[in-house]
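Hello again, I could really use a second opinion on something today. My current little project is about how a certain protein chain folds up. You're getting the sequence in one-letter code plus the fold written as tokens. Here's the protein in full, and shout if anything looks odd to you:
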Amino acid sequence: MHTPRHAALVAIFVLFAAAPAAQTRSESRWTFDTSLYCLGAGMTGDVTVHGVAADLDVGFDDILRNLEFGAMGKVRVGHDRWGLSVDSIYMQLEAAKNGVSASMDEWVVEPTISYQLTDVLEALVGVRYNSLDGELRGPGVLPSPRIAASTEAWWDPIVGAHLSLPLGSAFRAHVRADVGGFGVASDLTWQLFPYVDWRCADWFSLQAGYRFYYVDYEDGAGSDRFEWDVLTQGWQLGFTVHF
């Protein structure tokens, strides 16, 4: 568990150490971008609500068959090499195994500060707010086949990077990755989002990619225990308006 955290911290340190080698821009300017996305998200992992555990490790085909939908919005303000972004994601998630199903409504809000190290590489640091409202259903879960909804909310620190490579004049390939938690709230959280961007106009672009989002969080004990050890993944499509 400690190895991924230490590796991520070393990688981010190396990125910042490389900053003096970055090319200098000839002028400073402000930018403002706003984005909207829709995504199809499936989940797999282990969930505990009110002390009742459910194993939701399902195959990739099951994830595709049980995709639920969500929406994401992002606002980014940039000045020269610095950027301030706020992402907001809402997802409805559901998975089932052995007759037990879990349903979750999840909010994720992620403010980050970033610095452009080179023309293709950006380092970032920030926090991620998670809010989960969920329930387990199925025979044998409780004397009643339904468990009342439980709500949990917490903040995780994160560090990461964003790689952007040109694919001709109008297309770019991106990989956005982060890691966090570090035991502050979640034991571990990470995110990986490879996508392609098509700048079809100076003021407008389209994006398509696939997002992976993992959280290992637990709180409480006994009948109050809540655990969310889940990988969420799915296709994401969206657009950005550039000002």
Notes: The CA atoms of residues 98 and 138 lie 9 Å apart.
